[in-house]
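Me: I hope this is not a bother. Any chance you could explain this protein sequence and its structure tokens? It all follows right here:
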Amino acid sequence: MGAYSGFPRTCEPESSQLRANPGYDPGVSDGIRKQAFLSSISVRRQSADVGVTGSRHLSQAISEGDGISLLAPVGDAAAATAAERDGAEGIVLAHEIPGVRDATTLPILWSAAASAQTAARAGADAFVLRVETDDGDRLHELHLEAQELGLESVVSVSDEEQLALALEQVDPEIFLLSAHGDDEHDPLEGVLDLLPDVPAGKLAIAEVVAPSREYVLALERAGIDGVIVRAGDVSRFVGGSPPEV
């Protein structure tokens, strides 16, 4: 999949890693996090002076979905249509694709290192902000710029310091938990180590390569709300039959 270059390497899930993680509790369902989010988002959107103006909210698609949501990177409009047919709940773009906005009704997440204006021109509904711990003011400015363009901010963090800075400067509704940096050798462990620091009422998307449906279900049990998967894997990973498009 040349359309998305942000994947860390694949790692097989290990149940011991999930059980050892402080945030893992098999008795706590994924629905609790989503219910907390739905309660908090209604208050924030009623009181916000500037909000998301588009009609496709990534946060809403993830929070209202059944179980963990699958987001699919695509390289062309036909792949976006196919991903929605297979059961994806979001599309990920790393470059502009002609006709993609008309090819799917799903929210579109822009993941490339480009400006919010570029993302908006490409038809995106949400925009990945990657945290640099030495420039909190710049992060806040980029978040405001995205808001003004009607884009939801999805803040990518790879350690506790970045997560704390994001909460202080942006307080986003959605976090993209990445396994870059020191945790690159073990993506699953890096993501799960960050999860307990994500406050209730926030949504967490995992940026790891999911090799199987069992892996996806393990992420769901750990409390992850969404995961980016290869578009060709969506139909294998969804539960039940995909919805009609």
Q: What stands out?
A: The longest strand covers residues 152-157. Residues 13 and 215 are 6 Å apart (CA to CA). Residues 30-47 form the longest helix (18 residues). The beta strands are 69-73, 90-93, 108-110, 126-130, 152-157, 174-178, 203-207, 226-228.
